[in-house]
Design brief:
- Helix content is 29%, strand content 15%.
- The chain is built from four helices and five strands; from the N terminus they run E-E-H-E-H-E-H-E-H.
- It is an alpha/beta fold.
- It has a five-stranded parallel beta sheet.
């Protein structure tokens, strides 16, 4: 399973958040693309349109389990995807900003 640490991510890296809507609304990484794992297969085209053509997709959830599943699926589809180890919990612990849709400070649910 290709994995990266939160501390390895740079500003501008493409981030796919696969948490559910209530988790996203509580707080997320600014600029991330949100496609809940429960809707992922049906909305797969949104990812292929938004993801950088020759770039890497960094997949994140709350702790790393759901994002690992999506990462494995993407790798099988030939996409350069990696799981963000520890997910949004490590994101927040590392001091990375967590925001709401309104741009206000959020939290990891």
């Amino acid at each position: 399973m290709p994995t990266v640490q939160v501390t390895d991510l740079k500003d501008g890296d493409f981030l796919l958040d696969v948490r559910e809507d209530d988790e996203w609304q509580a707080g997320h990484a600014e600029g991330a693309l949100h496609i809940p794992i429960s809707e992922f297969v049906a909305r797969y085209g949104e990812l292929t349109e938004a993801a950088p053509q020759d770039g890497r997709v960094h997949v994140i959830c709350r702790s790393g389990g759901r994002s690992a599943q999506v990462t494995m699926y993407l790798v099988q589809q030939g996409i350069d995807a990696v799981n963000v180890d520890g997910g949004m919990q490590h994101w927040q612990t590392a001091g990375r900003p967590v925001v709401t849709d309104e741009g206000k400070p959020g939290f990891v649910l």
